Amino acid sequence: MIDGTWEPCPATRWEDAFLSGNGRHGAMVYGDPADDQVIVNHHSLVRPNGSEDLRPPELADRLHRLQDALLSGDTTAAEDFGAGRPLVWVQPFHPAFRTCVRRTRGLHEAVAGYRREVDFATGEVTASYEAWNSGVFVSRADDVIVQHVTDPGLTADIVLDPSLPGAPARLAVGRSTVLTPDGAHLALRVGYPGSGLGYTGVTAARVDGGRVSVAGEGIRIEGARSLTLTTRVVRGADRPDLGELWAALPREDYATLLERHRPPHRTAYGRASFTLRDAAPERELSGSELLRTPESPALLERLFAAGRYHLLSSSGALPPRLTGLWTGDWDTAWSGAFTTNANLNLQIASAAAAALPEVTEAHAALVHGQLSDWQDNARALFGARGIVAPSHTDGASGHTRHFQRAYPLHLWTAGADWLLQPLLEHAEVTTGTPDAALTGALVEAALFYEDFLSREDPDGNLAVVPSYSPENRPANASWGTVNATMDIAAARHALTTAAGHAPGHPSAGLWRSLAARLPAYLVNEDGALAEWAWPGLRETYDHRHLSHLYPVWPLDAINPYDTPELAAAAHRALELRGSENDSAHGHLHHALIAARLRDPSRVSAALDAVLGGDFFHDSLMSAHYPSRNVYNADAAHTLPAAVIESLVQSAPGRLVLLPAVPAAYRAGELRGVRTRFGAHLDLRWSEEGATAVLRPTRDARVDLRTGDGLTLTETSAGNPAAPLELTAGVDRVLTLGAR
Predict the structure, then answer these.
(1) Are the C-beta atoms of residues 656 and 705 closer than 8 Å to each other?
(2) Strand partners, 591
(3) Angle, to 10 degrees, between the axis of helix 485-501 and the axis of helix 436-452?
(4) Cα 280 from Cα 276, distance rounded (Å)
(5) Whether 738 contacts 705, CB under 8 Å
(6) Is the dihedral of CA 590, 591, 592, 597 positive or negative?
(7) % helix, strand, coil for the chain, step of 5
(8) Does residue 725 sit in helix, strand or coil?
(9) Torsion over CA of 103, 106, 107 and 108, rounded to 10 degrees?
(10) Which of 5, 103, 286, 703 counts the most CB atoms within 10 A of its CB?
């Protein structure tokens, strides 16, 4: 299977449950005929922990003293900036409850005839055994979770069960059950301890045939032919009117609801695809079997498809959290938050190229919904106009609250530029020009630097101070320091981008001047791009983050074509970088940068580390660490981006074909890629060469580059040696041959 996966037995761990989602609701499906559980999730479910009303502390009056100390050589001065503030995590993401259709003892091993499956193209999860069949999907059309069970003579207890792992002991739980002519209505109200907030789940149970009665904490059905459950979750301070919530649930049958859901999901998922020629013999293996053969091309194929499916399914009201849209445990690692200094951008890295505007729109909702909080951060911490993004957010607040000596994330100023970059790429892919909202945010980012960049180094360059490279420190200094390379790159990019897209702004000329006065990147004694462009600071190479290579990926400010010497230094930095604790995001970040630097062996090694490190559950959702340790979406969602970058890269004026294809993937096809100069692209490659079909949506002049060992041999028109002249609506076919 390319567009799906399957298993020969039910899930026994929530981590292995198959996933469905519409970007608001999420479902985790076990597929057990005897205890048919579906864990219900919703993006809005974060548990109050006292952080929800915290505002950034007023520290700006201390900033000048801190800058003086750091510039004079006090390498520990930043430890006192914000000292004494408690480390407060954002509100933790948690599951709602599980819907349970319980009969007798379950199946816990493969048995003849059992199969559970998820269809990526429709978002439907199915399971079957003998006469029993189950189907679950999360509707994009009606915003409900729909669960359908058929079995002649079905007799079962149905309950909404909030007792999931890690649930607080003092949850206030209330239930309501009302019998109806076609089944029953169930409701579960859950109140958070010590808070007026809570959430409500409502379910309509429609029963075909048999008898229905109230039993225990739910209902009992006897002798039915089928059962359909339709579930929705709402969160808030008020106790909603249950009658209104039940009445708002759709009443059509399962087939009708599924038919209404399929078109929007299928359209989005089907825009892009990836196949490998040598994958066919193993395509029909179960996911768990494929995971035991990490060298199989069929595994990369399936994980690419699963990654796009899970990314799409977890993006809507918000972009994906650290766990996507799913968790079966209230004790989610790192609060199940949005970690913005690496993880979120890595997860959504394929959105523009892989034709998932739904993902970018969800990210835009997060960013634009928090800009006023980011303004508060800039003013309170730095005494500046503009915006400073936090390193963690629960989706509800964008205020900085992570104060810690070892991870002084409140000193990180590059976040706004980093988080706006995916929106800029989306604009380049679609219209070529940012809309008014994005342009306004770009201006806000530049205004921060206009105020913040007020200090100079001894050579008269502007100094970025304080500065922080997430989540690393120099070997001979504390975490907060001067001129982190990521901060320099972000400042330069924010200033020049705002000036370019808001040329009429009164400060546009000043922004260009400030960008020109920023320090150059530093190449250290090892020949590597330094993580800190400040004399005397020594590198810490063994670290999972690669923040200092931000100019390579995603900015493309350092590349082999325009800045070959800096690209060589960046490549040396990549060679020297360790993997520290083997975090999945570190390996795939490495792959993305290696692809930009045209190093297929490093792309291959990074992919091999993830594919062979036991990072994936049977659900094909991933873990943060090897051996499936800590449920986490980084690897699952980032892998498609690493694959695409190894095959196709684009910038507004450049196309690179096959820059870093791993040797193991000798032939295949990538379809539906969107380029940043406004063309759709299909690519087919093999040992003999490649063919690319470009379908421009606007006129463009593009510099074409190819991977080593390839040469452009034929085009549909024009001089192969000249830049490509593309005309909107006129397809262009490029043929590449092996040298």
Answers:
(1) yes
(2) none
(3) 130
(4) 8
(5) no
(6) positive
(7) 30, 25, 45
(8) strand
(9) 160
(10) 5
Cβ-proximal residues to 317 (8 Å cutoff; 6+ apart), any chain:
23, 24, 43, 44, 362, 365
Q: Position of tokens 């009992």?
A: 220
**Continuous segment of H or E residues that includes residue 156:** strand 145-161
Distance of CA 426 to the CA centre of its chain: 15
With b for 16 or more beta-carbon neighbours within 10 A and e for fewer, the 202-212 pattern comes to bbbbbbeebeb
Secondary structure element (H or E) that encloses residue 593, with its range: helix 584-596
Backbone Cα Rg of the chain:
26
Task: Report the C-alpha gap between 45 and 197 in whole angstroms.
Answer: 10
In this structure, which amino acid lies at residue 635? A
Q: Are 31 and 314 in contact (CB under 8 A)?
A: no
Token couple for 108: 């816990």
* The pair of three-digit structure tokens given for residue 535, joined into one six-digit string: 């004399």
Q: What is the pLDDT of residues 459-469, one digit of tens each?
A: 999 999 999 99
pLDDT at 719: 47
Q: Which residue has the tokens 């087919």?
A: 684
Alpha helical stretches, state H, 232-321: 242-248, 254-269, 287-291, 297-313
Residue (of 395, 392, 362) closest to 470 by Cα position: 392
Q: How far apart are CA 349 and CA 422, in angstroms?
A: 7
Q: Which residues of the chain have pLDDT under 70?
A: 104-110, 714-722, 739
Sorted by sequence, the CB contacts under 8 Å of residue 383 that are 6+ apart come out as 60, 61, 63, 451
- pTM of structure: 0.97
Residues in the chain: 739
